[in-house]
Fold each of these.
Amino acid sequence: MIEAGAPGTTGGVRLRKQIATRRAVEEAAWRLFTTKGYHQTKIDEIVQEVGISQRSFFRYFDSKEAVLFGDWRRDHEELARRIEKADPALAPLSAVRAAAMSTADLMDRDRLLVRTRSELTKSSPTVGGYYRQIIQPAWEEAVASALASRLGVDPDVDPTPRAVAGAAAGMLNAAVSVWVAGGCADLLTDLAARSFDVLNPPVERPTGDR
Amino acid sequence: MIEAGAPGTTGGVRLRKQIATRRAVEEAAWRLFTTKGYHQTKIDEIVQEVGISQRSFFRYFDSKEAVLFGDWRRDHEELARRIEKADPALAPLSAVRAAAMSTADLMDRDRLLVRTRSELTKSSPTVGGYYRQIIQPAWEEAVASALASRLGVDPDVDPTPRAVAGAAAGMLNAAVSVWVAGGCADLLTDLAARSFDVLNPPVERPTGDR
């Protein structure tokens, strides 16, 4: 719906204003999280900083947890588009791998935010719940639907799309775990490549490995 | 700790009593869930049925959700043992696959219970939260530690054990999704085999598939 407004029209102005408000909310929230602490920050304080109403806040984010994770729905849509448009010659896992590497690249750039999110995901049941119950299943579902449309199969009948999506999520998460455990010192893209190589090696695996 | 008591000793008697009480709690709970409904059943009613105290209940289960999922910690220990003891010639994913097939086989036998759990996991945030935040990460952690000990690597440095564990979880879950979507009519072991075949084919994959 947001994408509908073309630049230069009233829709375009409204769109730009929405994006600006969304960003202002995120920035104010992160300032408060950093100075006061995530748990001590109330939504009331965030909206006061931005000068908007609570109601307006909830037009952009459904909770304080949602602000912490930014515009992840848009990131998932972008990921799905990349998978659908990837070279048709690529095997399903290779198409997901290529798309997931751009996610890893974004996380490398955002590593300070990612570390904070990851620590809160471990220490806070509400943040952990938001991540594990909302974001993670949505990632797998976005990847599985994109694969299902690539392969022309029904994901409720053929386990392939969900198997590949779940496997890719597992491998990407493994890389993120190691990355965070090492203080995000390495490049996540390198760790993700190692992690994907475990089951999706870039060269044929030697005979007798199984 | 429970395993410490040998049969015939006082420890053995205590162990048998503990197992019997645990089973009685599970049976009473499932009777009530089936007749009254899961949400309408209170822990108070379960303990009344069995004739034990609330305190005694909490020695076996940490919540009503925990009763619903049975003795999953013991199942995970068994899974880890199978992976550690599997033929050293097997590649990591093949060792996990073999162990996961016995999980699938158990679920085939318990399919009525699994369907109920799965429906409640979807419809109830507390049950869904217990599954996604407690059981699922514990499964992956049990598999990853077993693999780390098999491979002699530190899972916080080398992404391999968690990558394989996460990928295996993803593939097994994909099979369970399709199984439940089809009313558990097929054999889960068949669906799980199809799902694992996607990334871990039993024969060498043809050249040019990637």
Amino acid sequence: MKKAPTILITGAGGFTGQHACMNFIKKGWRTVAAVRTKQHFSLNCCSVECDLTNFEAVRQMIQSVDPQYILHLAGVNSVPQSWDTPLTTMQNNVLGTLNLLEATREHAPKCNILIVGSGLEKTSQPKEPPLHPYGISKTLQRMLSESWHVLFGQHVVIAKPSNLIGPGPSNGVVSLFAKRIANEEQKNKSVELKVNNLRSQREFLDARDAVKAYELLLLKGQPGLTYEIGSGHSVSIQEIINIFQQMTSVKIKVIDQGIKENGVAKMDTANMEKIGWTPKIAFSDSLKDILHYHRSLH
Amino acid sequence: MKKAPTILITGAGGFTGQHACMNFIKKGWRTVAAVRTKQHFSLNCCSVECDLTNFEAVRQMIQSVDPQYILHLAGVNSVPQSWDTPLTTMQNNVLGTLNLLEATREHAPKCNILIVGSGLEKTSQPKEPPLHPYGISKTLQRMLSESWHVLFGQHVVIAKPSNLIGPGPSNGVVSLFAKRIANEEQKNKSVELKVNNLRSQREFLDARDAVKAYELLLLKGQPGLTYEIGSGHSVSIQEIINIFQQMTSVKIKVIDQGIKENGVAKMDTANMEKIGWTPKIAFSDSLKDILHYHRSLH
């Protein structure tokens, strides 16, 4: 019998990290969850505490885990937070990735690494100035990852997902809506949702579909390449609210602040389709599962 | 009488750093030299020890020095060293710059900062892969610096000098030749110089001319802009040897290894000329001063 491969997942305590752990545990892989603190991590797999900004800590982790695969999800992934703490954002997203690449080069040089970037980083127009510290942190993370492949031949693939949604502890707008609705259902009232702009279009993808894409990229991704991952279609905030309204008896009222938002480039999923990936989960099913998740917390 | 401005020079113990200190001391500015260790620093100005990769140390330095100007020269600036220690190279060149920008933003937000990049970083073709860890470290340093100007409005100017030469402790090829020649003059013998390629063309600029450019950029540089600094003409290794041969009675023999070298893009000094800078020191005068420096060490 072939030995199960070992995968190290960084940022395993986060929203996507937990979905990733569940996916690889289910597949029977030896799944090691790297978390900042084990305190709130409850999934049934091996976990290690590691501050990725500390090279010596990362080195020891890679040496002891000896992974064949690394899924690097850790980092600051909030635009507002990146404005509040740009230093921490850069340290986590850039230095953390550098430490991981270097420790792996030293102790697990044959390891397949997937670096998860962000659709909020615009690769199509690299000359355009960044919109926020988060954006530049993800640009530098990607360039660093590509360079380590070119310079040292490391097996590094880059994923660029759009907005991920799904059941679990997400801070995204869809999850926040569902949380508010589920809260109000306890009191049988109406709920008032304040939105930046009802007509804002965004592309959403279920995190469980994204994790399937990550799995495929770890196995079949071409080193040095960036793979955009998305559902292929955008929805407006208005449409999200319409779908939620059909799922609840709570009356949803909307306060539209009419704030102009930066248009987000649509993902080009051609590279993903080439390796056989397409999203499976319908948008309305994602919303149903998200609402169900928040109801289950009561 | 107007109070003399305060300038903080990082990497002040290095080859260019020492020339920079001498320049600003001579101008009567309050010159503070930031060095890794004071042990070998002998110039007659205020000096502070600081590990730039440690944010808290940088924060304390900026707070206590309270500079109006920062000339940021510190960092790993050797291509071979960057291959040996890519982690240290990135930490020094990228994280060190980040710490400096952040500490300045916090404690000296009106400070004019000049970040000294490198001609070995190719901005004209940003899509091309890097040739060495040093190259990518300088690319990320530049992008970070540009971003901090765009995102936070910091007064950050970027300089991109070609190969700097001049009297002093340089590890460049010109200085190494002069050192070998000066050594042999003690013994009145011939000297054998091993070169990668006699026909290699490079652009050299005297560090004293570069420092004048930095002074001008601190005073008149446009924030967010990158200024290429060079002499405007290239010379071959053969020409350098010819000039040195005329200055010494030691017979110079050359072993040409015929190694093909990457052509270095010529600097575009148009932006520098616009603010009134042109190099003043003739190439042969630089060589004379370099040889004189090495003779004086005996």
